[in-house]
Specification:
The complex is a heterodimer of chains A (about 475) and B (about 450).
Chain A lengths: L10 H16 L31 E9 L5 E10 L2 E6 L9 E4 L4 E4 L1 E6 L37 H8 L2 E6 L7 E4 L1 E4 L17 E5 L2 H7 L8 H28 L9 H10 L4 E6 L2 H14 L3 E6 L7 H6 L3 E4 L17 H7 L4 E3 L10 H14 L6 H4 L5 H7 L16 E4 L10 E6 L2 E5 L28
Parallel strand pairs in A: 1-4, 1-5, 6-7, 10-11, 11-12, 12-13, 13-14
Antiparallel strand pairs in A: 1-2, 2-3, 5-15, 7-9, 8-10, 15-16, 16-17
Helix pairs in contact in A: 4-5, 4-6, 8-9
Chain B lengths: L5 H16 L21 E9 L6 E10 L2 E6 L9 E4 L4 E4 L1 E6 L38 H6 L3 E6 L8 E9 L7 E11 L12 H20 L17 H11 L5 E5 L2 H13 L4 E5 L7 H6 L4 E3 L18 H7 L4 E3 L13 H10 L4 H6 L3 H6 L17 E4 L10 E6 L2 E2 L5 H9 L13
Parallel strand pairs in B: 1-4, 1-5, 6-7, 9-10, 10-11, 11-12, 12-13
Antiparallel strand pairs in B: 1-2, 2-3, 5-14, 7-8, 8-9, 14-15, 15-16
Helix pairs in contact in B: 3-4
The chains are: A alpha/beta (about 475), B alpha/beta (about 450).
Chain lengths: ~475, ~450
């Protein structure tokens, strides 16, 4: 799960460590116990039990296909088979057992990926006992994991599915400087969170710039200032470096007593190893620049700045550092840090050659990310940028996949990718568009034309039995 | 030609002539335009697809003449007055200026910054007199952001505080200041029924006790108002005098009580009370309104809502659905739209998206457009001057580059009370400053 983002500053160290581990593991008798055999921090304590729902080979015929590789195929076909995209093109042959879906006048896109969601950790209804997104007890909590807070029965998952969302990153909130691990989920109904976990997706580490940690901890012992925030990250990463060095020395020696284990520093050690990706809430341009400096000081890489309302001011800096910017289409002004957001932000970051994308951070917004991308695309076009819809579609598919490190598996319509695919009843960049059919790993998870094929959470069962309220996707 | 009556054209010519008789004001520079009084030279918008939202319906290839701040003529082939500026709409939509029927525009700059947010009272009880008109800032940067997206009128309303009542709303125009006030005291807000898990107003019976007591006090006060200040002149009341004053027009049925309620049973309870006491009522939110749509329609109670709220955020809104707007509309309820309701002021411009999503989920297009133009004009009692593209109305007119309810569309020209508003906001200026990062010729701060 190493980053595929070229070779940023931290990469050489990670490669050296990786090589050492490989050589060391081959020495007979090396390692005194099972746990430290591979000389790396453990990273799979809550293994995914995800299994694709049953699927039939499906051929969508005669649709306009936005592949998210800057290509628009008119009158195109997509064949889904064994959970994968088998073929994409025109005039494909249908296997004899295939379900044929008439795509005439319709559009196909990759499944939408929301890189910033709190579904499950701030679920509906917002009962006190299920508001589990922020471990706001101390400013640095790398030891916590959002996956341990997710309530899989959040009805919000089903609504997002009806909006074409097939995967999302569930993040801890932004109260803390270092808020804990995120988790990437497939948007499938499951009794357990493990059953939703996107297989082999890297974890993220949620960090937060600016106003939130100051507001939460300002009169609870700090930090209370920007400089306090920065000192907080640096102190934490210094500890993580020392902790990692201690373990590396121990693994190298192969004997002696094991260092004390610290679950939070272990997570941060995995960040330093490049195995966990930093996903950082950061609004202002100057904050982003400062955090890039901090990341270089300690040798980690920031995968993406989230919210990034001022990313358009430093898009060149983000491009140079291979850091993505995750933005809203038109949210702004709810606080000082968001005062300078502009509707052209996504288009401007994209035009500068940096990696730009949409996000929701909202259980309603996640249902209409296609509309949000449409607004961002239109704003960019109005300022004179050339943005074909075949390009803009990447802002909700390919680019979030890249920032999450799952772009080898999802995010585009290409043979071999997971068959996470949405059939829209018209151009998805219209306010009137509906996701008509949503496939995840080839399985039809939501069908607008078939009320029986609409998942409902346990919570919504039995509400208003006699009044035609079904709950569930599409409600 | 069939849509334009003789009377319309005559009225148009008369208005046009009177406007022409006034001294012409010529702007000396483009900067001056924003400060001009509403006696600009006439403007003729040609070849529009005009959604009049009035009895003439939708006119393809029609013209709109704006003069003296008013709409002077509507119809095909209008002859431009000699000094008129002509805009060619090229067949694109022309609509009335839009109205967002619940915002804090003018009273809130940053939602999370107390110093710039005057939208909510601090008192635990009795805040009926909290009046947004004490706080309106015509220089708010939010206003140009909303108006260049076609929003020309808003209901500026208080936000619920800890009290059961939370204050008086006003109607504003978003044109040239300093006076944006169109109508004060457009309604008094009250929350009936808890709407959140940490609701500080207490339980439903708590809320209703305070509400009934306050309303009873107001009736008592108004029955013996002359003697209120005299020793022994009035019984001891828990409600502040200023709140009792504010509730006068409400108990007389002159000013609507705007009731925020989500659950169907809360809505029914509120309808019962207001009917028994002959109050004028408007519902806000009404996530489960569709379940009692007939009751709401029979009571002629309009509903302000956001069409995309479809999650059971609270136990009060378990029945929330995307079909709420369409179902209420089909039952004959007058539905009007608020913007995306988590930050309706910053996001006032989303009111078109809210209307578009209502259409996507079953509401007829013309009804959804009416829900942000002619219907709020009627609900808020300003239909004599706003809400349609008809002769004699204030010239709030928007020319669009596409379907006004479509997320990819935007205005190409916005008129408010006849003033052609510059298509500039703080956001467009930030865009211009940073649109070319490579150009090092001029530092950013000097752009």
């Amino acid at each position: 799960m190493d980053s595929k983002n070229g070779l940023p500053g931290w990469a050489p160290a990670a490669i050296v460590v990786g090589t050492f581990v490989l050589v060391w593991a081959l020495i007979p008798g090396a390692g005194k116990n099972e746990e430290k055999k591979d000389g790396a921090f453990p990273n799979d304590q809550f293994p995914s039990t995800y299994a694709a729902y049953p699927s039939k080979p499906t051929l969508i015929r005669g649709a306009t296909i936005l592949t998210a590789t800057d290509k628009e195929i008119s009158n195109g076909d997509v064949l889904l088979k064994d959970g994968k995209i088998e073929a994409v093109g025109t005039n494909l042959d249908a296997p004899t057992d295939a379900v044929i879906v008439d795509g005439k006048g319709k559009f196909v896109t990759p499944g939408i990926i929301d890189i910033h969601s709190h579904l499950g950790v701030y679920p509906s209804p917002s009962a006190q006992e299920t508001s589990d997104g922020n471990e706001a007890t101390k400013p640095t909590t790398p030891e916590v994991r959002s996956e341990n807070s997710v309530w899989p029965h959040d009805p919000g998952f089903t609504r997002a599915l009806a909006g074409g969302v097939t995967a999302m990153q569930i993040l801890p909130g932004s109260a803390n400087l270092i808020g804990g691990r995120s988790v990437v989920l497939k948007n499938v109904p499951s009794r357990t969170t493990q059953g939703m976990k996107f297989p082999d997706a890297p974890y993220g580490l949620k960090m937060a710039c600016g106003e939130n940690p100051k507001r939460v901890y300002g009169d609870k012992g700090g930090p209370s200032t920007e400089m306090g925030n920065i000192a907080g990250y640096r102190e934490a990463y210094q500890k993580a470096k020392e902790y990692r060095a201690k373990w590396q020395a121990y693994w190298k020696k192969g004997e002696g007593s094991e260092p004390d284990r610290d679950l939070g520093l272990e997570t941060m050690g995995l960040v330093l190893d490049g195995k966990i990706r930093v996903q950082m809430h950061c609004y202002r341009a100057d904050q982003m620049a400062t955090m890039i400096d901090v990341s270089k000081e300690f040798g980690f890489h920031i995968a993406a700045f989230h919210h990034a309302t001022e990313a358009y001011k430093v898009a060149d800096l983000l491009r140079e550092n291979n850091t993505c910017a995750v933005m809203w289409a038109d949210w702004w002004g709810f606080k000082m840090e968001a005062y300078d957001a502009i509707p052209e932000g996504i288009a401007m970051v994209d035009a500068a050659g940096a990696c730009a994308m949409i996000h929701s951070d909202d259980p309603l917004g996640i249902q209409r990310l296609n509309q949000e991308v449409a607004k961002a695309m239109a704003a960019g076009r109005r300022m004179g940028l050339n943005i074909p819809r075949a390009h803009a579609v990447a802002w909700m598919t390919k680019n979030p996949a890249k920032a999450l490190g799952i772009d080898d598996k999802v995010g585009t319509i290409e043979p071999g990718k997971m068959a996470d695919v949405v059939l829209w009843d018209r151009d998805p960049f219209s306010v009137y568009a509906h996701a008509e059919k949503v496939f995840i790993d080839g399985a039809l998870m939501f069908d607008r034309d078939d009320p029986g094929n609409s998942p409902r959470s346990d919570f919504e069962l039995g509400q208003f039995l006699d009044q035609g309220h079904t709950g569930g996707a599409g409600q | 030609m069939k849509y334009a009556t003789l009377a319309t054209l005559t009225a148009a010519l008369a208005l046009g002539a009177s406007a022409l008789a006034q001294p012409a004001v010529t702007p000396s520079s483009s900067v001056m335009v924003a400060q001009l009084p509403p006696t600009n030279p006439p403007v003729l918008i040609r070849h529009g697809h005009v959604f009049t939202m009035g009895s003439a319906g939708t006119l393809s290839n029609a013209d709109v003449l704006i003069s003296g701040g008013k709409i002077a003529a509507v119809g095909p082939n209008i002859v431009a007055p000699a000094n008129a500026r002509v805009i060619d709409a090229k067949g694109k939509p022309v609509t009335p200026g839009l109205m967002a029927s619940y915002t804090q525009l003018g009273i809130e700059e940053l939602e999370l910054d107390n110093e710039s947010n005057d939208s909510s009272g601090d008192q635990a009880i009795n805040t009926a007199a909290f009046d947004v008109t004490d706080a309106i800032n015509p220089n708010s940067t939010l206003i140009p952001v909303a108006r260049i997206a076609g929003v020309t009128r808003v209901l500026t309303a208080p936000v619920a505080g800890p009290g059961v009542f939370y204050g008086k709303a006003a109607i504003l125009h978003l044109g040239n200041g300093p006076d944006l006030l169109v109508k004060p005291n457009a309604g008094v807000f009250v929350t009936l029924g808890p709407v959140g898990s940490d609701d500080s107003r207490g339980t439903r019976p708590d809320t209703w006790s305070v509400f009934r007591e306050t309303m009873d006090d107001a009736r008592e006060y108004w029955a013996h108002r002359a003697g209120y200040h005299l020793p022994g002149g009035s019984r001891d009341q828990r409600t502040l005098r200023i709140d009792l004053e504010a509730l006068g027009p409400v108990i007389r049925g002159e000013v609507p009580l705007i009731v925020h309620a989500e659950r169907a049973s809360d809505i029914r309870q509120a309808l019962k009370y207001t009917a028994a006491n002959k109050l004028k009522m408007i519902l806000l939110g009404a996530e489960e309104g569709w379940m009692v749509a007939k009751d709401i329609a029979d009571a002629h109670v309009p509903v302000i809502l956001d069409s995309v709220t479809n999650l059971p955020f609270h136990f009060s809104s378990i029945g929330a659905t995307l079909k709420n707007a369409a179902r209420l509309d089909a039952a004959g309820v007058t539905v009007i739209f608020e913007p995306q309701n988590d930050d309706p002021s910053q996001y006032a411009r989303t009111v078109t998206q809210i209307a578009g999503n209502a259409v996507a989920n079953g509401m007829p297009y013309e009804h959804a457009l009416a829900a942000i133009t002619s219907r709020p004009a009627a609900v808020w009692g300003i239909a004599n001057s706003y809400g349609t593209v008809e002769v004699g109305k204030d010239a709030d007119v928007v020319v669009w580059d596409g379907d006004p309810l479509e997320v990819t569309s935007a205005p190409t020209a916005v008129f408010i009370r006849g003033d052609n508003m510059p298509m500039v906001s703080r956001q467009t200026m930030l865009r211009e400053r940073y649109k070319n990062l490579k150009d090092k010729a001029k530092p950013f701060a000097y752009r």
